[in-house]
Specification:
The complex is a heterotrimer of chains A (305), B (276) and C (523). Chain A has 305 residues and is mainly alpha-helical. Chain A is built from 13 helices and no strands. In chain A, helix 6 crosses helix 8 and helix 10 packs antiparallel against helix 13. Chain A is flat, with a radius of gyration of 24 Å. Chain A starts with a helix and ends in a 7-residue tail after the last helix. Chain B is mainly alpha-helical. Chain B has a single domain, classed as Orthogonal Bundle (MetI-like fold). In chain B, 53% of the residues are buried. Chain C has 523 residues and is α+β, with helices and mostly antiparallel strands. Chain C has 15 helices and 19 strands. The chains are: A mainly alpha (305), B mainly alpha (276), C alpha+beta (523). Chains in contact: A-B, A-C, B-C. Chains A and C meet through helix 2, helix 3, helix 5, helix 7 and helix 10 of A and helix 1, helix 6 and helix 12 of C.
Chain lengths: 305, 276, 523
């Protein structure tokens, strides 16, 4: 097991390194932050000076080497726009993204799992069809549209919730619904499928023939076995949205890392973009690694190719 | 009577709807009542009326015509992008299984990197470099999705590779391409088909999100995605500008999803518990 | 069985792992309630550059006009004495003597004296300065002499004609405290800025908000609003929703239907600054030689119904311009006739110039709004539609702001391109920026017209204010004849406000000098 762990850690590190190269190249190719920062009247020499001040005048591979050596020591550079350490900005905001992501996942779970289970149990009935429709709808509209509709409905016409920002538990509701609706669909699908498989199994039939109540059969037996893929999908979805739900954060003004990173790309704020992508990659790889490890413990039969 | 059972479970409604959309997209010029790009500012933001069945948008263009032509663009973008992603992803995924170990691992690393990259940010950075255009939107969406194909196909191909007849083929020295064509591809085909269907739904949505970020299909070309994104401020007033293309997206994506689910159940039940 | 037990224990662990931090963050994340009398401004941009000696663009005034004063400030009727109470100019025009206001204190209690004025301007003059308007200041100012704590002399190398008329020039530049700045250095100053202004900076979150507190010892009108927060909200609809809901008291950056809704509402209203911007359409004669023909340029002007665009897309926020100078610009000439909307005339002129129908022209468009022109993407798209209606075939080249800026600096913009200007207060700087060898947009803007360059240089050294104004006015008439550039719009900046805001007098011709201390805020 530990060999596997070391292997996986090594792979993740390589991936992270590759990530840093790609995002570095992409960020620097995407444009020149100096032309955005400098005022319209700046001359070529003004801009050259600004570039030198920011260390952007050296050849690309030199810049990368400087960047990666500093990063290895924990220095991810200073945001060109906000003039504060880049990683500090990200870490400041990560708790907000974490909060939003967990809320969304919890909402997704509360909606998706019961619907998925009942859909599987009542397969082929009206409930199944309606359940499917409701779940897929959450994935059938662009998220910014859902967000704006929610603001219109529940912040303007029925002023129940605040329109945007962060602060109280009420601020959390609409963004979580928007984000949660998206992940609920995939969770519900997987729950339903897993339950279908579980309900087909022999021991379920045995339990039923022994006279165990339907309720116990569903929850105590079938669901237990369906739990593994359901947990996996929850964790994978969590890893996905933990990277920062860019659209939701923009619409709702939620101060998370997604919004920060998008603004940084527009402003060609390289250090911040690089730090953000590295951080998101780290989080994503970390959660995936965790899931794989737990998966191994849960089911030793799984082979790893 | 088994086939009767199967037919009854066909997602009829969704398939007919999709068929209708494809017809509309193919014959847009004959179906649309007018020129989708013809502006008329003095008639901007008019509600549905006899002259304009679905109203006019903020530049006075006929919404119905734009939705009809938009169908073509949205479908083309979706299909082309997924095709790009599928071709690249399947190629890399299958190749990674049949080449020497170190190359296969390198391809795996590349796939992992792209899976770890946050899609929206990469789309933004690439668009900032190459500028917005129809081709670039297709390529960007393809760039976002290829890795998922590669990973899934690789997994399938790996298990196929270990099967007896494949091992036998390799032992007797069958050329690699032949093995891929005769043994591996047919077995991963089901997976690929399901994934194509489901990614198509995501691609149509992603096009809209790119427009929201300002890097979508550029004006004056109408796509459902950019109609919804550009019409955001009008949502509470000239609601037809944004709601109708939004409904079009919803119905289409929903139908594609439904069909994809049905395909998945029929073709490859193993995929029911994987994540897309 | 054992596996099952492990699994269920693991399940609970995972569940706990997910919910615990959520509960913690939820309760921990409950911010303290907004203090009484807090005014919230939601805007699509947030400037957190707090060092005025590193002034980068006009929008920097958003925080600078809160925290600092200049020798002059920009009030509702124009530039008025602030830290300087009065001044005299020597006969040879090469020395200005300012009498400074007494009894002014910086936010940290330090007395304001002439030393601070000297320190500020010498910082801008120094070689490492990255102040955006450094060049004209360096060209004009030799040094600042402190005669006594309340009298300074500006010794000039050459006549500084637009010191009192242009915001870009030094007159309204913010003054920083010498002792404090030297003590904390530029980085320290950026973290904790100190000025003499009507507000003090109380806290910030980078990229999210800046919070200000009223300065109770302000020498001028003390703000009745105790707390002001500038908040970055990118999505226009969300800003509108915040205003509706009362979560924001002032919003910026709204046009079109959202603006209409605000105007129609009882609870809300709008305040505008006239004219905070001017915009033009210029033509790259290099990439498209047909633009050398004046008839073609005029035809394009006749083809566009600017009033229709102003009424529909711009929601009445902008007015079709007759000239690049707005009515408030120094050098404005009254009575210049606009080019009327006349598509027939446009077609006629085009055929006279030998342009066949279906002729393709490059058109640099925008995917984001930028500068003083609200809704630039839609405006330019509408213009493209009008060009198509007279038989031209515009080839759209969409650009995002960053890419466009880079292109403009390199002089590589193609075909028809748009140019915005914020705070259009001085005709001389507009002339210099867009027409001629000093234009910032490179070769395409350098028309090589001798008279234009002569006038640009002559008015820059003309000391007689009336003569200078006359020169600019004459130039304005000349330009109307030659029509090198097509004027587009004079735009105001509308602010959506709730009814709890009254008495607001924002700075003239600027969207960024908001003078929030003039607001009477009832909440």
């Amino acid at each position: 097991m530990s060999i596997y762990l070391i292997q996986r850690l090594g792979q993740s590190l390589l991936t992270l390194l590759g990530l840093s190269v790609i995002v570095f190249a992409l960020a620097h190719l995407s444009g020149d932050p100096v032309s955005l920062l400098a005022p319209p009247e700046a001359t070529a020499e003004d801009m050259a000076r600004l570039r030198a001040k920011l260390g952007l005048d050296k050849p690309l591979h030199t810049q990368y080497l400087i960047y990666i050596t500093q990063a290895a020591q924990g220095d991810f550079g200073e945001s060109i726009r906000w003039k504060t350490p880049a990683m500090g900005l990200i870490l400041d905001r990560f708790p907000n993204t974490l909060l939003l992501s967990t809320s969304a996942i919890l909402f997704g779970i509360c909606l998706a799992i019961p619907v998925g289970v009942v859909s599987a149990v009542k397969r082929g009935t009206l409930f199944d069809s309606v359940g499917k429709v409701v779940a897929i709808i959450g994935q059938s509209m662009p998220s910014f549209w859902i967000g704006i509709l929610l603001i219109m409905a529940f912040a303007l016409y029925f002023p129940i919730f605040p329109t945007s920002g962060i602060g109280t538990a009420a601020h959390l509701v609409l963004p979580s619904l928007t984000l949660g609706g998206y992940v609920a669909a995939s969770m519900m699908r997987v729950t339903r499928s897993a339950m279908l498989d579980a309900l087909d199994a022999d021991y379920v039939r045995t339990a039923r023939s022994k006279g165990v109540s339907e309720w116990r059969v569903i929850w105590k037996h079938a669901f237990r076995n369906a739990a593994t893929p359901v947990l996996t999908i929850i964790a994978l979805d969590f890893a996905n949205i933990l990277r920062g739900a860019v659209i939701t954060e923009t619409v709702f003004g939620w101060p998370g890392i997604g919004k920060l990173a998008v603004d940084a790309v527009y402003a060609r704020d390289f250090p911040l973009v690089q730090a953000a992508v590295l951080f998101m990659g780290l989080v994503f790889l970390g959660v995936n690694l965790l899931v794989d490890l737990i998966y191994t413990r849960l089911d030793p039969r799984i082979t790893h190719g | 009577m088994q086939w009767l059972q199967k037919i009854r479970q066909l997602p009829y409604l969704s398939l007919s709807y999709l068929f209708l959309i494809v017809i509309i997209a193919l014959f847009a010029e004959w179906i649309a009542p007018g020129n989708p790009n013809l502006q008329n500012l003095r008639e901007a933001q008019m509600p549905p009326s006899a002259g304009h069945l679905l109203g006019t948008d903020h530049l006075g263009r006929d919404v119905l015509s734009r939705i009809i032509f938009g169908a073509r663009i949205s479908l083309v973008v979706g299909v082309a992008a997924v095709a790009v992603a599928a071709v690249v992803g399947v190629f890399l995924g299958v190749t990674s299984v049949m080449v020497p170990r170190w190359l296969g691992d390198a391809i795996m690393r590349l796939t992992d990197i792209f899976l770890a990259l946050p899609a929206v940010l990469i789309a933004l950075a690439v668009a900032a470099t190459v500028g917005p255009s129809l081709i670039n939107v297709i390529l960007i969406i393809g760039l976002v999705y290829w890795a998922q194909f590669a990973r899934l196909v690789r997994g399938e191909a790996l298990s196929v590779r270990e099967r007896d007849y494949v091992l036998a083929a390799r032992v007797i020295g069958s050329p690699v391409l032949r093995i891929i064509r005769r043994h591996i591809l047919p077995n991963v085909l089901n997976t690929i088909i399901v994934m194509i269907t489901l990614q198509l739904a995501s691609a149509i949505l992603l096009e809209s999100i790119l427009s929201f970020l300002g890097i979508g299909i550029p004006q004056p070309t109408a796509s459902w995605g950019n109609m919804v994104a550009d019409g955001r401020p009008y949502i509470a007033f000239s609601w037809w500008i944004v709601t109708l293309p939004g409904v079009a997206i919803m119905l289409t994506v929903f139908s594609v999803n439904l069909c994809g689910d049905w395909l998945r159940d029929r073709l490859d039940p193993k995929l029911r518990t994987t994540q897309f | 069985m054992r596996n099952q037990n492990i699994r269920s224990k693991l399940r609970y662990k995972i569940f706990a792992l997910i919910t615990a931090p959520w509960l913690g963050l939820c309760t921990g994340g409950l911010a303290s309630a907004a203090p009484e009398g807090e005014m919230v401004i939601a805007a699509p941009l947030l400037i957190q550059n707090f060092d005025p000696t590193n002034h980068q663009s006009a929008s920097d005034y958003l925080p600078h006009s809160m925290l600092f004063d200049g020798l002059l400030n920009l009030g509702a009727t124009g530039k008025e004495p602030a830290l300087a109470t009065d001044w005299t100019i020597s006969d040879d025009k090469l020395m200005i003597e300012f009498n400074l206001r007494r009894g002014v204190k910086f936010h940290n209690g330090d007395e304001f004296t002439g030393e601070d004025v000297q320190f500020t301007f010498h910082r801008i003059l120094s070689p490492e300065s990255t102040h955006n308007a450094r060049k004209p200041i360096i060209a004009a100012l030799d040094r600042v002499e402190v005669v006594n704590p309340f009298k300074v002399r500006f010794h000039l190398k050459k006549i500084w004609v637009d010191f009192f008329t242009s915001v870009r020039s030094g007159g309204t530049g913010a003054i920083v405290p010498k002792n404090y700045y030297e003590k904390v250095g530029d980085k320290g100053f950026q973290q904790n800025p100190i000025g003499t202004g009507p507000f003090m900076l109380s806290s910030i979150q980078a990229g999210e908000f800046s919070k200000f507190e009223a300065n109770p010892n302000y020498w001028g009108q003390v703000s009745n609003t105790k707390f002001v927060t500038q908040r970055l909200v990118a999505e226009p609809f969300t800003r509108y929703a915040m205003l509706e809901r009362g979560e924001a008291d002032i919003i910026m950056g709204i046009t079109g239907p959202l603006l209409e809704k605000i105007k129609a509402s009882d609870k809300l209203t709008t305040v505008s600054t006239r004219y905070s911007g001017t915009s033009i359409i210029s033509f790259n004669r290099g990439t498209n030689p047909e633009f050398k023909d004046r008839r073609v340029r005029l035809a394009i002007a006749h083809a566009i119904d600017r009033q229709a665009i102003a009424d529909t897309i711009l929601g009445g926020v902008c007015e079709p311009a007759t000239h690049i100078f707005t009515p408030g610009t120094f050098g404005y000439e009254e009575g210049i006739k606009p080019v009327p909307y006349d598509p027939a005339k446009a077609k006629q002129l085009l055929s006279e110039a030998g342009i066949a129908p279906g002729h393709e022209v490059d058109f640099t468009t925008h995917t984001q709004s930028f500068g003083s022109q609200p809704n630039a993407p839609m405006v330019l798209e509408a213009i493209a539609g009008y060009l198509e209606a007279v038989g031209l075939k515009p080839k759209r080249l969409p650009r995002e702001t960053g890419a466009w800026l880079a292109e403009m600096r390199a002089g590589k913009q193609r075909g028809i391109f748009y140019g915005p200007s914020s705070v259009p207060d001085d005709g001389g700087s507009l002339l210099r920026s867009w027409y001629g060898y000093q234009a910032w947009c490179g070769e395409p803007c350098n028309f090589g017209i001798k008279e234009y360059d002569q006038i640009t240089d002559a008015q820059a050294v003309e000391t007689d204010v009336n003569k200078r104004e006359q020169m600019l006015q004459d130039w304005a008439k000349m330009e109307r004849e030659r029509f090198e550039i097509m004027p587009l719009y004079w735009c105001s900046t509308p602010f959506g406000i709730t009814r709890s805001i009254t008495g607001w007098a924002p700075g003239l011709l600027s969207a960024y000098h908001q003078n929030l201390q003039s607001v009477v805020f009832e909440k």
